[in-house]
Structures are given as structure tokens and as C-alpha cells.
């Protein structure tokens, strides 16, 4: 690649020797475009630099789109500072295109400038993005909104993200956290289930669903037992029996989540739930086994 770069510059020098200044500038631009076609971004960048230098010496105005083209090559040649300089020149000339703003966002991301990365991505999304989000911009915006604690925008952009991005554990976990904070029970339930499809050992999702079914069962149990204690009739007993079937089913669902949690971490908090569940099942031996872990 180095030989190609050198040869291209040498050609430009030879051209300088035999021709006038206006043709030299055209030569540098042509050499830059030729280098791009060959995938030689370093040579393209150097020839764009020479092109701009010659134009400045000749006091010729440079079209802003040329700065944008050069900036893209400099970025691909691993010269982000130079790329940023040229992109800014293009912006000063009121020029913009989709590729330029995607590159700007990447440059700011590499520099750790979250605010400017966000501005570039939002500009791209407003002006160039189609519904398919081929570049994954919405996913990156979601991650930034999480970082800057803009939950409202994070929730707003979630449905517009690519399906494959909404299936990623990291994104699902962040969205799950937001929905729990917003106390959106049904959405949190569905996201927890999606998380467990991706990662069956996802602790927050297991806890969420385990506690959901446990609390659901325990509240029903307490409510129906109070009704029966207040009214010991045959009809009320039949109703209690029916309700206890639902209670048992919910406790069994809770068990499906607390058992994996116990395998992950044998701590007293999980043991307490397991003791209560097996007590409701009238299984004292198993309940006593977990009771040993409560201390």
C-alpha cells in the first residue's frame, strides 16, 4: 500500500513539473478518486490534503462536498482528527450527507464525546434514516439515552429499533430496568420472559417473575382464607377449594423461578420463599430443608 501511495504522489509531482497550476489541482483530486477506487484510503487522504493546499495557494474556493469526501477517506485512513477538521469545513459550507454524519458519530464515539455523538445521530435520524434502520442508529441512541438517564426517549425509541437489537440481552436488560422503574407491570412481565429466553439464568428476570407469582398466590391465599374463616359454610368451602387450586398453580409457577435462583445463589432470601412455598404445599420435610439456610 505504501508503494502505491508513493507512486500516486510521484505522479502528481511529475504532473506539476509539466503542467500549469490549475491542472495540478485537478490531478490531485483525480488521484484521490483513483486511490479510493483502489481502496487505498491513505493515498486518497494525502492527495485530498495536497488538493486543498494547492487550492488555498491559488486562492480558489473549495466546494464543501469535497471536504466531506476527503473527511470520509481520512476517517477510513485512521486519521479521525483530520477527518473531523474536514467534516467541519463541509458543515461551515452548509453541506451534509448521511455518510458524513454516520462517520461524525463514530468519531465522537471514539473520542468519548457523548453529547456531540448524540447530536450527530439525532441529525442523521431526522434527515436520512429509513424505517429499517440499517445502520443500527436507533439502538445506539437507545444506549445513549440510557446513559444520560433520558428514560422517556429510551422508551419512545425502543419499538423503532431493529428486531435483532431488541433481542440482545444487554438492550433487553436496560429496557427491563426502565419499565420496572416506571412500574409498568405487564410490559415488565413480557420483557422478563424475553430475557429468560435469551438467558435462562438472568437473575433480575427470574426474581421478577418468581415474586410476581409468589405474591399473586400468597395474596389470593390470605384473601380466600379470611373469607372462609368469616363464613364457614359449605358453599364458601367449595369456593375456597377452587381458589386454592389457582393458588397452588401460581406457587408452582413461582417455584419454576426460585429453584433456578437457588441453584445460582443459595442465600437466605431465596430460602425464605422456598420455605413458604413448600409450607403451602404441606411438604414439611422440604420446607425444613430450606429453613436451615435462613440463619
TrEMBL record:
Superkingdom is Bacteria
By its UniProt entry, which PROSITE patterns does this protein fall under? Answer: PROKAR_LIPOPROTEIN (PS51257)
Q: Under what name is this protein listed? A: Tetratricopeptide repeat protein
Q: Which organism is it from?
A: Sunxiuqinia dokdonensis
The taxonomic lineage of its organism, from the top, reads: Bacteria, Pseudomonadati, Bacteroidota, Bacteroidia, Marinilabiliales
